Amino acid sequence: DTGVSQNPRHKITKRGQNVTFRCDPISEHNRLYWYRQTLGQGPEFLTYFQNEAQLEKSRLLSDRFSAERPKGSFSTLEIQRTEQGDSAMYLCASSLAAGGTDTQYFGPGTRLTVL
Amino acid sequence: GIQVEQSPPDLILQEGANSTLRCNFSDSVNNLQWFHQNPWGQLINLFYIPSGTKQNGRLSATTVATERYSLLYISSSQTTDSGVYFCAVGKDRGSTLGRLYFGRGTQLTVWP
Predict the structure, then answer these.
(1) Which of A33, A38, B52, B105 could be A93's S-S partner, Cβ–Cβ 3.0 to 4.6 Å?
(2) Using a CB-CB distance cutoff of 8 angstroms, which residues of chain B are in contact with residue A41?
(3) What pLDDT, on the 0 to 100 scale, is given for residue B46?
(4) In what order do the strands lie in the sheet with A75-79?
(5) Which residues in B52-95 belong to E strands, given as ranges?
(6) B42 φ, ψ to 5°?
(7) Rounded distance, CA B107 to CA B105, Å?
(8) What is B2-17 written as a DSSP string?
(9) Longest dimension (CA), chain A
């Protein structure tokens, strides 16, 4: 069990560029979540997959954001036409919902800075 | 969504002191987790505790689901306990399947 991994750990981009982040969940975890955290706040939910199906999206996830989880394994989060307000830590979590429990384990995050 | 309030927002302690962090939430939940966020931003799982009491070394937690609050106890605090402690709750059914709602956290600073 190597934990949840995220790449890259840091990303600096110019406003208007597209960026893509990757998340590799704990193997055999069927659920994968994306959250966003800004300074001084707790993480806020963005979207959630069960296996390859995207089951829930927050209203925070504008049409510039898209997430995929092909084959129910790793996931990518793409932000198109980045804005300065997109600067944040993007966190991925995974869980194995079983036996009435659903403990989410978080990755180290990708810190995005939009100049 | 579910509102989560954590108190106190900031806590400063001398090494060796004990502390209690509180989490109130606005709706019935079937998922409650406590996390410690280290200075590098990593969220570390402390407890999965939608109800009852658990202990792990110097840390323990109690959730009273019927009264919609949870408490995290830290005994004999150490400088390595410093960081932000988050409470997160979820309701794994209906339109909010799976998501966690986080509080704003308690910033704990432990001085030697």
Answers:
(1) A33
(2) 104
(3) 97
(4) A5-7, A19-24, A75-79, A65-68
(5) 52-56, 59-64, 69-74, 83-90
(6) -70, 130
(7) 6
(8) --EEEE-SEEEEETT-
(9) 45
Asked if residues A45 and A21 have their Cβ atoms less than 8 Å apart, the reply is no
Divide the 115 residues of chain A into consecutive groups of 10 and give the mean pLDDT of each group: 91 98 94 95 94 88 92 94 97 85 92 97
B32: nearest CA in chain A? A103
Report the C-alpha gap between B60 and B46 in whole angstroms. 9
Torsion-angle region of A63 (φ positive above 0: left; ψ -120 to 50: alpha; else: beta): alpha
Is pLDDT of B94 > 70? no
Q: How far is A86 from chain B (nearest CA, A)?
A: 17
Distance, in Å, from the CA atom of B69 to the CA atom of A109, rounded to the nearest integer, reads: 28
CA dihedral (B49, B52, B55, B56) in degrees, to 10, reads -20
Instruction: Give the Cα separation of B93 and B69 in Å (integer).
Output: 20
Q: Are A104 and A4 in contact (CB under 8 A)?
A: no
Secondary structure of residue A5 in the 3-state scheme: strand
Residue showing tokens 């403990």:
A103
Contact criterion met (CB below 8 Å) for B108 and B54: no
Of B41, B99, B102, the CB nearest to A56: B99
